[in-house]
Amino acid sequence: MRFLNAKTGAWISTFAYLLVSLVKIIIAWQVNSVALMADGFNNFTDIITSVALIIGLRIAKKEEDENHPYGHRRAENIASLVAAFVIAAIGIQILVDTVRTMVNQNFVTPNPLAIWVGLGSGLFMILIYFLNKTIASKVNSQGLRSIAKDNLSDSIVSFGTVVGITGAQFGLSWLDPVTGTIVGLIILWAAWGIFKETALILTDGIDPEKIHQYKESLSDIQEIEKVNDVKARVSGNKVILDVSVSLQPDLSIKEMTHVTEEIKELMHKQHNSLMTFVELNPSVK
After folding, report:
1. Residue 279: CB partners within 8 Å, gap ≥ 6?
2. pLDDT by residue, tens only, the chain of 285 residues
3. How far apart (Å, rounded) are the C-alpha atoms in residues 28 and 257?
4. pTM
5. What domains are there in the chain, each with its CATH number?
């Protein structure tokens, strides 16, 4: 289905967050649930993450220009970096609020309706998570993968809220801030994962396993005697490759030109390369 792309996933998240945040905030205000209110503002803040990705994807589609000879595709990765900081800020805020509640022992017992709202929100966000994860895998969007992780984090927050509110119904008022602390740490861990992956890309780092896969693909070309070196850097959802290979002896210029084109076509088809720079070396006996 052609409409399933990274931008579609970002818009789905935006409207999902807008829906659940409004429902939570309104219900929390009516049933006097501080935890559900905080969770609602948590979801509302996540709209920023989705909007950042939408803006990043829009910029990434711009054509190459004098200042950006490789295009603007890394705008998507920068949007992921923004998402990581937003998620981390949410995690830190949750930790600050829950620790303050425990220190001040400001425990409350909200209306049980808050449990059902939190449970429904958690299940809904899991559905959004699997949808965005599927789209991200289909279109190889690092930005949308970050959004999907954010969706999962928010579903965990909602379930954590449910546990806390449920405990409060049975006199375990302290369970609410303790659960919130655990959830805050989980969110910070998710933010670190996104930051680590995005920082690697933006500093031209790449997973060594990917380099191994590129070399394996090149080894399938009959005329290549040895793969000397492969360097790669990621740009958006594509990869830019520098390939150095040694060819079999006695190949004509026409045959070497054919090998060059074959390498470029192979890397584009198998690894979604944006461009591949090829260095051909004579065989050393």
Report:
1. 228, 242, 243, 244, 245
2. 445 677 788 788 888 889 998 998 898 888 877 778 778 877 877 787 777 777 877 777 777 777 777 777 777 778 878 878 888 887 888 788 778 877 887 776 777 888 899 899 999 999 999 988 888 888 777 678 878 888 888 888 888 888 878 887 887 777 767 777 777 787 788 788 888 888 888 887 788 888 888 998 898 888 888 889 999 888 777 888 999 999 888 888 888 889 899 999 988 888 878 888 998 887 655
3. 68
4. 0.68
5. 6-202 (1.20.1510.10), 208-281 (3.30.70.1350)
Amino acid identity of 284?
V
